[in-house]
Structures are given as structure tokens and as C-alpha cells.
């Protein structure tokens, strides 16, 4: 990481009252969060995740879909938040830092961040497929490729609280993400390729409202041109470096 972009980032952050951070899959990469490819081993190798993560699959075979999500939750339970997640949680104790994530994992929460907006839902917040009541998720590795999902009091089935292919984003979460994008002085994008809308539209909303946009990503993305400052580094390296440098700049 060259010192120039980081000092530009510190300059912008020093005077910011409100910071909004949008995270994507790259945020959790250094935690070793299992990708679809990692999950599709053993008895799962014969299934295609693109067809499992759909309302149609749930309709046809809820036990198969539930077991696959149990497998994903169990694999996630075996990894830890990384230094980037920790840095964001630490920073929010002394500054108005608001998180929006496209990730369905719980690593921000496990690092100590509260009030995280999950625009694509969460593996751990389940709900009834009929009445919508919220239910806790079970974390146990399934023995086979079918496990009947729990039943809700209303007789419906408990489904994973993630946004499946072809589904709408949760309305309240997206409204809150939009409000956080409109209201910030600095908007930081971490580890997102910026190709999946409407989440990829959030930095444009922030920019339109006058925010400075910072990107943290080792690679160029579709959003890079719309950013004011780019840190070509990883989440677990750049975020602690930036938060530490900001804290020292306040001390001087
Ligand atoms: N630190 C920061 N960024 C990283 C790191 C890292 N260690 N490793 C990879 N990246 C970057 C990649 O360069 C890429 O730009 O993270 C980005 C990951 O992009 P995607 O895999 O497309 O993830 P994301 O942008 O979160 O995808 C959005 O698409 O798959 C759907 O619903 C799913 O929420 C997801 C959405």
C-alpha cells in the first residue's frame, strides 16, 4: 500500500462526522469463509448451488435446501473474523461508523459490530416461509443431504433468511442501507466487485449526496472509477492500517 492514498483517506476521515462502510465477499476472504466451491464437496458435489439457492428448490425439496444451509452454517462456525472485521468494530466504539454488508455470514457481529444491515439477508436469521415470524438458526452439521426444516407455530416451514436468486431484497434493510448511504460524509467500499445491483448503486447514492468514496480492494472493480481514493490492498491489511493511522492522527 503506498502512503499517498492512505494519507488522503485519513484527511477525509479526520473531518468526517459519519462514515458508512459497504462490505462484500472480499471482506471475509481472509477469514477463509467457504465459497460455494468449498461447500460442494463430498455428498454435495452432485448439487448445483445456483439451483439450491432458489425459491423453486425450496418449493420442490425443502429438506435438501435446509440441509445444504445447515452445512454452510456449520462450515462458517469453523472460521473466525479477521483483523479487518475487528478494526471496524473497534473503530465504531469511538466514531459514527455504520455498516452495510452484502455478506450472509455473521463475522461482523462476531467481531463485535452491532446494528449491521444485511442487504442480502443472513444465514443465521431464519424465518417462517408462511407467516414470516423470525426463528433462530440451528448450527449442526447434517449427516445426510436431507434434513426436515423445523416447523413454525403456524404450521409453515422455517427457511433460511437469505435472499435467493430471483427474490427481492428485504425492504427495510435496503431502505436503511440507502439512508446510511445518503447520510454519510465518507463512504468506504470493502471487498465488493460492484456488479450486483441494487447494492452496487449505494456508492453512487453516497456520491450524489456529496460523500467522499474510498475503495479497499486489491483489484480494480466496476466501481473504481467512481471512487475518490483507492487503497489497493486487502481488508485485513488496509482496515487496521487505516484505523490505526486515523487514531494516531487524532493524537497529534
Ligand atoms: N480484501 C478485499 N477485497 C478482496 C479480497 C480481500 N482480501 N479478496 C478479494 N477481494 C475482492 C475481489 O477483488 C472482488 O472485487 O472482493 C471482491 C469480491 O467480489 P464478489 O465475489 O463479486 O463479491 P460481492 O461483491 O460481495 O458480490 C455481491 O453477489 O454472489 C452474490 O449475493 C452474492 O452478496 C453477493 C453479491
UniProtKB/TrEMBL annotation:
User: Which function does this protein serve?
Assistant: NAD-dependent lysine deacetylase and desuccinylase that specifically removes acetyl and succinyl groups on target proteins. Modulates the activities of several proteins which are inactive in their acylated form.
Q: What is this protein called?
A: NAD-dependent protein deacylase
Q: Which residues form the Deacetylase sirtuin-type domain?
A: 1-252
Fill in the domain comment. 2 residues (Tyr-69 and Arg-72) present in a large hydrophobic pocket are probably involved in substrate specificity. They are important for desuccinylation activity, but dispensable for deacetylation activity.
**What is annotated as the active site?**
120 (proton acceptor)
Which Enzyme Commission number(s) are listed?
Answer: 2.3.1.286
**Annotated cofactor note:** Binds 1 zinc ion per subunit.
Q: Which keywords, in A-to-Z order, does the entry hold?
A: Cytoplasm, Metal-binding, NAD, Transferase, Zinc
Kindly report the protein's main subcellular placement as a broad class: cytoplasm
For this protein, the record's HAMAP family field holds: Sirtuin_ClassIII
- Keyword Calcium on entry: no
So what does this thing catalyse?
A: N(6)-succinyl-L-lysyl-[protein] + NAD(+) + H2O = 2''-O-succinyl-ADP-D-ribose + nicotinamide + L-lysyl-[protein]; N(6)-acetyl-L-lysyl-[protein] + NAD(+) + H2O = 2''-O-acetyl-ADP-D-ribose + nicotinamide + L-lysyl-[protein]
The record's listing under InterPro entries reads: DHS-like_NAD/FAD-binding_dom (IPR029035), NAD-dep_sirtuin_deacylases (IPR050134), Sirtuin (IPR003000), Sirtuin_cat_small_dom_sf (IPR026591), Sirtuin_class_III (IPR027546), Ssirtuin_cat_dom (IPR026590)
Q: Where does the chain bind substrate?
A: 69, 72
Q: Which cofactor does it need?
A: Zn(2+)
UniProt family annotation: Belongs to the sirtuin family. Class III subfamily.
Note the Pfam families from the entry: SIR2
Q: Where in the cell is it found?
A: Cytoplasm
Instruction: Provide the residue positions that the database annotates as binding NAD(+).
Output: 102-105, 191-193, 217-219, 235
Cross-referenced Gene3D superfamilies: SIR2/SIRT2 'Small Domain, TPP-binding domain
Q: Which residues bind Zn(2+)?
A: 128, 131, 152, 154
NCBIfam families (UniProt xref):
PRK00481.1-3
